[in-house]
Specification:
By secondary structure, this protein is of the alpha+beta class. It is built from four helices and five strands, in the order H-E-E-H-E-H-E-E-H. A hairpin with a 2-residue loop joins strand 4 and strand 5. The structure holds tetrahydrodeoxyuridine (THU).
């Protein structure tokens, strides 16, 4: 699947965002090694801290459906009443990527849409990350 197509799915997922507190909508589309795409949006909460980011929604959906290996994720954000904007993943989401993805090959697609996006590796966005390999003896 092309990165632009994945970004289009992220834009569609962004429409589902439940974000009445920040009014900031994020969508993500996560491509598994199997070829399946798992989408996610941010889901906020009146108690604030239970809120979850779009990226982690996608990862939790995927892992709970049996997918554990991933090729790429497209992410897009922006205010509810504005145009889509580039939304770099938060630190917690980068750490969750580190759990399941190869730092050198996993592609993180950021931008505002299919015609305006570029790919970063996880290693670029989370240099010297701590991952499962650090706990193996
Ligand atoms: N958000 C995401 O969904 N992903 C990120 O990586 C950054 C932030 C969400 C969380 C919250 O619902 C809103 O954006 C504003 O922070």
């Amino acid at each position: 699947m092309k990165y632009g197509e994945l970004m289009k799915l992220a834009l569609e997922a962004r429409e589902k965002s439940y974000s009445p507190y920040s009014n900031y909508r994020v969508g993500a589309a996560l491509l598994g090694e199997s070829g399946t795409v798992f989408t996610g949006c941010n889901v906020e909460n009146a108690a604030y801290s239970p809120g979850i980011c779009a990226e982690r929604t996608a990862f939790v959906k995927a892992v709970s459906e049996g997918e554990r290996n991933f090729r790429a994720i497209a992410i897009v954000g922006g205010p509810k009443d504005g145009m889509p904007e580039t939304a770099p993943p938060c630190g917690v989401c980068r750490q969750v990527m580190m759990e399941f993805c190869s730092p050198d090959t996993f592609a993180i697609i950021l931008g505002t849409g299919p015609e305006d996006c570029r790919s970063y590796t996880l290693a670029e966005l989370l240099p010297k990350g701590f991952g499962p390999g650090n706990l193996k003896k």
